[in-house]
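PROTEIN DATA CARD
Card holder: Type 4 fimbrial biogenesis protein PilX N-terminal domain-containing protein
Chain length: 129
Origin: Candidatus Collierbacteria bacterium GW2011_GWA2_46_26
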Amino acid sequence: MAKKQPQGNILITLIVFMLISSIVVSSAVAIIITNSTAASKVEQGQMAYEAAESGLEEAIIQLLRNPDFSGTVSHVSTGLSEFSYTIGPIYPKTIDSYGSYHQFTRHLNTTATYNLQGSLIIGRWQEIY
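Structure generated from the sequence above:
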């Protein structure tokens, strides 16, 4: 007598294989979406940082044009980002710059003073968290 092949083994194997395949594909898609979102947020944070740097540079130009300037300049648009800066009233002048891009905001700070030769000396730029 010939041995009888069990019925349904191929169907069960196929279902298990399809289940495992769908779990692997779903996990891969979730990881890709997470990485893409994280990369986008990093880029937006960098854009906000660059806007804050633009604010510091604009404030330095303002001091070069008018060494007695102090005050606040708000909401200067640079494409999709914007910056604001504040220059303190006394030397060494404290410059605070805020850059924003979408929901991200960065705050940079530096100091500026004139030396005896009349050159504007800029301190170390630092990010304030």
